[in-house]
Amino acid sequence: MSWMQAMEHRWSSRKAIELDVTVESHDGRIRARTQDVGLEGMYLRVPVHCLEENTPVELIFALGRGRQARTHRVKACVVRRGRNGVGVMFLEFTADAFRYLEDLLYVARPLAGANGGGRWRSAGRSKGPQKVFGAAADPDR
């Protein structure tokens, strides 16, 4: 068992949310899609041969809508490999990224008619994500 697996303990629930994510590692850059998201990590649908356990990565994704959309860069590590992808644990991210994730997980509610495709509306905070979906954040912007 690796040190990352030994220390991994979920302290918040995960929510089935789909986001486009760019994953940067020492091997290059790949596009992924989340299956679920929590405050301490996310599960990414990627070909499992792309990322080994204990690989440090940087996740790049956008949260918000329109002019409120923000691109976030989060340092993480691959802690688990499954049949359809990998689980990553966040190692370091900004307070702004944490607030957006917190809002997405605990304050946002599905839009009417949303089918779980990543469409969520903020239920209380004015700066929270009102919609999360679309193309992965362009890390070169």
SSE map:
Blueprint: H1 3-7, E1 20-25, E2 28-37, E3 41-45, E4 56-63, E5 70-81, E6 85-92, H2 95-107, E7 109-110, E8 120-121
Antiparallel strand pairs: 1-2, 1-4, 2-3, 3-6, 4-5, 5-6, 7-8
Q: Determine the CATH superfamily.
A: predicted glycosyltransferase like domains
Taking all Cα atoms into account, the compactness measure Rg is: 14 Å
Mean pLDDT score: 75
Percent of residues in helices: 10-25%
Write the H/E string, N to C. Answer: HEEEEEEHEE
Number of domains: 1
**Overall form:** globular
Largest sheet: 6 strands, antiparallel, barrel
* CATH fold label: Thrombin, subunit H
Describe the structure.
The chain has 141 residues and is mainly beta. It has one domain (3-121): Thrombin, subunit H (Beta Barrel), CATH 2.40.10. The chain is 13% helix and 38% strand. The protein is built from 2 helices and 8 strands. The strands form 2 sheets. The protein has a 6-stranded antiparallel barrel with strand order 1-2-3-6-5-4. A two-stranded antiparallel sheet has the order 7-8. Strand 1 (20-25) and strand 2 (28-37) form a beta hairpin. The chain starts with a helix and ends in a 20-residue tail after the last strand. The model is unreliable at 1-8 and 111-141 (pLDDT under 50).
